[in-house]
Amino acid sequence: SFQNKTINGPVTLNWEEMELVKLEVSPQFLIDMYKREDMNLSNRLAILHYFMLHLYDMNTVAELLAPLAEKSLDLKTPKILQEVLIGGAFASVLRSLPSDALPLLDLLPLTTYNSYETVEVKLNNHLVMSLSQESLWNPAVMLLSPQQRLIPFRSDMWTRLWDLLSLHADQVRFRPTTVADKLMVSLVCYQPEALSRCSTPLSPGGAHVVSGGTLSDLASISSGRGSKNVDPLPFYEVESSAASKQEHIISVNLREVSMHLLKRGRGRESPMQVHAVATRYASAQLEMSRLLCQLMTKAAGVDTSFHERGFPLIEELSPPRRKVLFSTLERYCFAVEALAFPLPQGFPSFLAFLAYRTISYNLFTQYVQANVLQLQIDVMKAIMADLPDSGEGLKRKLQLLQLLPRSRAKRLLNQWQHPGSLMIRAREHAMNILSGVEGAQARGHPQRPRNQVSHRGLAAFPSADRLSPLDTFLDLLTAKASLAELDFNLLIAATMASTEEFLLE
């Protein structure tokens, strides 16, 4: 009777009665097991992986991620978010990839779960079962090749095992941490103000990589239970710089994934298939990053469907809600950057202003100095408008300007109508003239004779002996550059402003 039974689905064998017993594990049972306080991290990652890749149920994933907002300081939170990013990106590529490029899926990241670590399962309050799986370095040495067997053409379990080992011998999955290591070097010297979009291409196909039809909508990835509408992002996806950091990360990921597929694909796939897989994976990374940001914002209790987005949304939140949202998005940012996934455009500015409104100023500056927060133009404009132009507020403005790149700080100084701004700009202008950065000598023109220097600019500060410090200083400047190259109005305004004790107000 045991051999005549036909049971669909996973089964187990009852040795005592020699019967096959069908295993039925409902999704609700997995949800309840995931929410248990004593559930270890490995099992939670496996449950998340099952719902994303096998059931395509992102609504349940959103339900499982909801408690993370209250436990954002837990060290396990970034690992859970990384599993969602890796698994969700793979699921998106799997559903949108052409059938002829499916063999390349074995080279893409599948999960962050380490199948060779020991897993402990608590059966009851007194019994704990430990499961471990070991990996052999070269298991093929323990098998005979089919040509070495007595009956070479007979197929059995051992010949099939030999074929599987030979098939998967060179299939090494791509590691996102390799991209993260390279970005640690390139992002240090990355200057978005010095780049243009033409120097940071997304792909050979152009900008449609991110927004074109090759993307599958990850918000509707769940098909079994029907997907809910995901709330919009808490910020507007805009960037104030010409070349965004997001484009740089996408281009690096696209290049590294393409090279990995070409090296490990064994030459059986065409370059167009490699480009299709790499393009879809780079697009899926961005879409999964956006979706996870939406889910974590919703988990923090912030409803973005009926409120203003961006900086006005932060102003409307209560201080406790701001703190929860900041800690949640901080963990999200750490998980995304550790895997070298691109952040949504506008997220760095939103996180920086949220931190400014949430944490103390000293801690805020430490975040900026550690490159955790990025002070873009829009954030600095909002912060400088919020700080007063006297006393402690003025000192904080000057301190934040010193933390910015040179071109960005100069742009803000030109828009800041304050005596301190005049003095800084005038000092920089004079320093460039005297050091040869600006003026006739910087362009290779011969220096004019001393007796040909005009003194028309000295009339602004007349003196009896014409030997005042200002006269001497202007003489030095006119000896280095022509009058057309000197900004006398700026120098005079800064000199007059230096007599005001605005720092003591």
Automatic annotation (TrEMBL):
<dbReference type="InterPro" id="IPR028010">
    <property type="entry name" value="GSAP_C_dom"/>
</dbReference>
<dbReference type="GO" id="GO:1902004">
    <property type="term" value="P:positive regulation of amyloid-beta formation"/>
</dbReference>
<dbReference type="GO" id="GO:0005802">
    <property type="term" value="C:trans-Golgi network"/>
</dbReference>
<dbReference type="Pfam" id="PF14959">
    <property type="entry name" value="GSAP-16"/>
</dbReference>
<feature type="domain" description="Gamma-secretase-activating protein C-terminal">
    <location>
        <begin position="286"/>
        <end position="398"/>
    </location>
</feature>
<dbReference type="InterPro" id="IPR026172">
    <property type="entry name" value="GSAP_fam"/>
</dbReference>
<protein>
    <recommendedName>
        <fullName>Gamma-secretase-activating protein C-terminal domain-containing protein</fullName>
    </recommendedName>
</protein>
